[in-house]
Specification:
With about 150 residues, this protein is α+β, with helices and mostly antiparallel strands. Helix content is about 40%, strand content about 20%. The chain has four helices and ten strands; from the N terminus they run E-E-E-E-H-E-H-H-E-E-E-E-E-H. It has a five-stranded antiparallel sheet, with no helix packed on it. A three-stranded antiparallel sheet has the order 5-7-6. Strand 1 and strand 2 form a beta hairpin. The longest helix is centred in the C-terminal third of the chain and has 23 residues, at about 130-150. It is globular and about 35 Å long. The chain starts with 5 loop residues before the first strand and ends with a helix.
């Protein structure tokens, strides 16, 4: 599965970060929702069957089709109520789903960052949890700042 950032209409989707951004609005997405979105984006314009989605996204787990329904619903509510409000996913009765949004992959070869995300530091390692890293850094800074206040006086 491709993890490069891509444009979805007016949105920029960052699969490695489980995040999407439209203007100043940023939304955080569950990993399975991102997996479904990336799988459909890789096949944009083509009909993807529910069985294909279920076997690819949940290959290691037995789940009910409600999990897929919830992912599709969440993608629609997030991206169709967003900046542009255009239809993202079309349901093809008795066949599956088709991503109808405009998909373009971000050309990061000439950019060091895209919307504040450092793309040159990417590697083949699994992504780190950015929120955890930022939180621990903030806690550490707060602790040392406050420790200095209490020990000085």
């Amino acid at each position: 599965m491709r993890l490069e950032p891509f444009y979805l209409n007016d949105w920029t989707v960052y699969p490695e970060l489980n995040r999407a951004q439209c203007g100043s609005r940023t939304v955080h997405l569950e990993p399975k929702i991102v997996d479904v979105l990336v799988y459909l984006a890789e096949r944009a314009g083509s009909v993807v069957s529910r069985d294909d989605l279920m076997s690819e996204i949940w290959s290691d787990t037995v789940v009910l089709s409600d999990s897929l329904n919830r992912c599709i619903s969440q993608i629609r509510s997030t991206f169709e109520s967003g900046c542009e409000g255009a239809k993202i996913i079309e349901t093809i009765r008795k066949r599956g789903y088709r991503l109808v949004a405009d998909i373009r992959y971000v050309d990061v070869s000439h950019q060091d960052s895209v919307h504040g995300v450092n793309m040159s530091a990417r590697s083949d390692r699994r992504p780190t949890n950015v929120s955890f890293t930022l939180a621990t850094s903030s806690i550490s800074n707060w602790y040392y700042d406050n420790l200095a206040v209490y020990t000085d006086g």
